[in-house]
Design brief:
The structure holds two protein chains of two kinds. Chain A is of the alpha/beta class. Chain A has 17 helices and 20 strands. Chain B contains 15 helices and four strands. Classes of the chains: A alpha/beta, B mainly alpha. At the A-B interface, α10, α11, α12 and α13 of A face α10 and α11 of B.
Chain lengths: ~500, ~325
């Protein structure tokens, strides 16, 4: 019988008007990876904040090693060996890795009480080596990739000699390859006796890593299973409360004429000699590792970033868009990767967000027409099934999936030919994901040409007609989705020789 | 999916929301200022006094309109005081060099427009430049050029009709007040009813999103800073008319007074928040307050301290007013 390290019983937490946790239970064994799953708003974050001492529960019991206690502050939780690694890395980009690791618990010289740099650097390096990090601790934090910053966060947790490490969606910003690296590190932590609570939306994370899985839904505890006892479908039912019969909608494959073609597109230092075309009603997936140049190519097409050489053809006519204004006028739309920073004005209501790209359509000679705006925004929000009381609700109050639907509505407000989607399901829960896939499929069915940038293999294989794979700024493969496999794509993305022309 | 219902497009009217607006608090403050002033001087609270007084403080108020836009954009323009001086000096010198007065006035407006436009051009062409540094530099440069042109002396001798701008009245209402009211209506409509105004608000919250949404963000920035220059020149016209002459050191510190009025008007320096009505009320609050304290023979430095305190207290009040909403949002 494995030893129970942390146990929470019947936890209740209420905020004015909302019951965030309603009698939730959880127990964590010594040296296990415990997957915690649930849709956005299921109560996972609140739960984590209770374990880390940010919130105090209104009811229930917390037992650490069988002893009842309360973590009154995050410091207090840290002293008891609890460390958390959050979804968005919270680091000091201008400080060194060492400083980031020891922030708040710096090593001091005994007598002078001055910072002992030599010892801090060597201990930081030791932690990094232990994690097989492959970079030095003197490096500036901001110069590291997100994946490496996460390794630093883990090193930080280890430096506090944490017994319980909570990882909140650590793979959300990582590529497949980087995720593999994180899995390896997580497992080695477990093998050293650390207990890990691993939160993720990605079923493959949980399937690969978790020893046990607990699911929350609507602020309630649904159940805990051994990894082998539950399959993906049952897990989805547990999280969503209903069965999602089809994650990827049936795609009718009858693409029409070519709409957009790029030839030999080159931007020195970013991508070189990129060729592809996309047809009416077709979904073209653009995949590869993060940093392979996919986003950069599309930003160059859209006129946000420049390119040095090559040409772009829209319906056979060569064009050059020097700014997004021109590209949009010709019927191109771009759904940016970061919906909060690039896609939405969070402080604004849904309606104003939706009409932002098309203010001209709602403007007479001088004035905006708010009634016409509200009608059109309402029509699109309803069409895309945005869940909100009214179009006057602030975008910031919506869940991730609903925010993404609003960004989709922004695209649809104009007359379009080509839609570029940059990681459209990043960080949205599984129910919203299915809804977004349905939207994308409908777009293709309505005759739009869709370019889908994605790092998620199931999404690429499930949604696209054709797949263009990029590696280090070059196209390494163009594949027909029905005639290829995950292995072939990964091979092109990670192994294939890049021919420097 | 059966649980999808039509999203409402009806805006809910709430009296609470209406009266929670910042402008009502400013109206209250203005009434308090009126009451205190009428205690100091029994002549203050007469209609003619109320109408005549604004001509003593309205000159700089023209810059409040574009400055409101600049600050809603999340930026700041500290060069406006120097732009006033430069356009006034160029006008006076050209007039004294034989240019007819109407032409000199047009030159004045041109100088202001170009001065503001240069700020805008620098900011849109070199995005890595900070708006504080750019306008700090032009603040120094424009003032410097004014001194180079005129030296440390006054220039005036304008035709008699020119004094009408600052001193004249139409049907008992000061001309400057009429022009101010017209400008207020125009700027208010532009900011709140047009797509240009919508873009300004959007860029104040999130310029990147606006760019991805296909807004001409550079053009908006350029226009707003150019307007700041143009309205500085308008201020120069009225200021010179009231004083009858100009010096290179006129309008020193105007930028701070104007920014104070905009901030007191409830426009957030982090961008995106604020309405035109607030700064307009703030113009009259600060104007009548200074006037009243002048009536009571209170020294100018004390007036400054009072205005500073008023600013801090009101910004704090604004924070407390906003916070319950934010608390709701945080969940």
């Amino acid at each position: 019988m494995p030893k129970t390290l942390l146990e929470l019983k019947n936890i209740v937490k209420t905020f004015p008007g909302v019951k965030a946790l309603d009698g939730v239970q959880f127990n964590l064994h010594q040296g296990e990876i415990h997957g915690l799953m649930g849709e956005n708003g299921a109560g996972k974050s609140t739960f984590i904040k209770i374990i880390t001492g940010v919130y105090q529960p209104d009811g229930g019991e917390i037992l650490l090693n069988g002893q009842p206690l309360r973590f009154s502050t995050p410091m207090d939780a840290q002293r008891h060996g609890v460390a958390a690694i959050y979804q968005h890395v919270t680091c000091y980009p201008d400080l060194s890795v060492t400083e980031n690791i020891f922030m708040g618990h710096e090593k001091l010289r005994k007598v002078t009480r001055r910072i002992d740099w030599t010892r801090m650097h060597s201990e930081a390096q030791k932690l990094l080596n232990q994690l097989n990090a492959g970079f030095r601790s003197q490096i500036r934090m901001g110069d590291l990739s997100v994946a490496r910053q996460q390794i630093v966060e883990i090193a930080k947790a280890l430096s506090t000699e944490a017994k319980i490490v909570i990882m909140d969606e650590p793979t959300a910003a990582l590529t497949q390859h980087e995720s593999q690296e994180l899995y390896r590190i997580t497992e080695s932590l477990r093998d050293h006796g650390v207990s890990i609570i691993f939160i993720s939306h990605r079923l493959e994370d949980i399937e690969r890593l978790a020893d046990r899985i607990t699911v929350f839904r609507d602020s309630r505890y649904i159940g805990t299973w051994q990894a082998g006892q539950i399959n993906q479908n049952q897990l989805i039912v547990a999280m969503v409360g209903r069965e999602i019969t089809q994650m990827y909608p049936k795609h009718s494959k009858n693409p029409g004429d070519e709409v957009l073609r790029v030839e030999n597109l080159t931007r020195t230092g970013y991508f070189r000699g990129v060729n592809f075309q996309v047809r009416r009603g077709e979904i073209l997936a653009l995949t590869g590792l993060v940093g392979a140049g996919r986003t950069e190519v599309c930003e160059a097409i859209f006129g946000i970033a420049p390119f040095d050489d090559g040409s772009i053809f829209l319906e056979g006519k060569q064009i050059q868009w020097s700014s997004p204004v021109d590209a949009q006028a010709d019927g191109l739309a771009f759904l940016p990767e970061d919906r909060q920073k690039q896609g939405l004005i969070l402080e604004w209501e849904i309606g104003k967000n939706i009409t932002l790209p098309a203010l001209k359509y709602f403007s007479n000679l001088f004035w905006m027409d708010p009634n016409r705006e509200a009608k059109e925004a309402g029509r699109l929000a309803s069409k895309l099934a945005v869940k909100a009381p009214s179009i006057f609700a602030k975008a910031a109050t919506l869940s991730g999936g609903n925010q993404q639907k609003v960004v989709f509505a922004k695209l649809l407000i104009r007359n379009l030919k080509v839609i570029i989607l940059d990681e459209p399901t990043k960080g949205v829960d599984i129910g919203a994901k299915a809804a977004i896939y349905e939207i994308i499929e409908n777009l293709a069915a309505e005759g739009y040409a869709v370019i889908l940038i994605s790092s998620e293999m199931p999404e690429v294989l499930g949604m696209s007609d054709r797949i263009v794979v990029m590696k280090q700024g070059h196209v390494t493969a163009e594949l027909i989705t029905d005639q290829t496999s995950q292995e072939e794509i990964l091979n092109a993305a990670m192994v294939a020789e890049v021919h420097h022309a | 999916m059966s649980d999808v219902r039509k999203i409402s497009i009806e805006k809910e009217w709430s009296w609470k929301g209406f009266f929670l607006q910042w402008e009502w608090l400013l109206v209250l403050v203005l009434i308090v200022v009126f009451l205190v002033n009428s205690l100091i001087s029994p002549y203050f609270l007469t209609l003619s006094s109320l109408i005549q007084t604004p001509s003593t403080f309205l000159d700089k108020a023209f810059i409040v309109f574009p400055m409101t836009m600049v600050i809603i954009l999340g930026r700041i323009d500290i060069s406006v005081g120097s732009t006033v001086a430069l356009s006034a000096v160029v006008m006076a010198v050209s007039y004294n060099a034989g240019v007819p007065m109407p032409v000199a006035m047009i030159i004045c407006l041109l100088v202001g427009t170009i001065g503001g436009g240069l700020n805008g051009l620098l900011l849109t062409q070199f995005k890595e430049l900070s708006h504080v540094i750019v306008t700090l530099a032009s603040m120094i440069i424009y003032r410097g050029i004014a001194y180079i042109i005129l030296g440390d002396q006054a220039s005036g001798g304008f035709p008699d009709w020119y004094s009408f701008l600052g001193w004249g009245s139409i049907a008992g209402i000061p001309f400057i007040l009429i022009v101010f009211a017209v400008a207020a209506v125009i700027f208010g409509l532009v900011l709140h009813k047009t797509r240009f105004g919508r873009s300004v608000y959007g860029m104040g919250f999130n310029s990147t999103t606006c760019e991805y949404s296909g807004l001409r963000t550079d053009r908006v920035t350029l226009i707003v800073f150019t307007l700041a220059g143009l309205m500085s020149a308008v201020t120069a016209l009225f200021l010179t008319s009231r004083m009858g002459s100009t010096r290179p050191n006129v309008a020193t510190g105007y930028e701070l007074e104007v920014i104070t009025m905009v901030a007191l008007g409830g426009v957030s320096t982090s961008g995106g928040i604020g309405k035109i009505g607030g700064p307009i009320l703030a113009v009259f609050i600060i104007g009548y307050l200074s006037y009243g304290m002048g009536l009571a023979n209170i020294q100018a430095p004390v007036v400054l301290v009072v205005i500073g305190l008023l600013l801090i207290v009101s910004v704090l009040a604004m924070k407390f007013r906003v916070s319950p909403k934010k608390r709701k949002l945080a969940m």
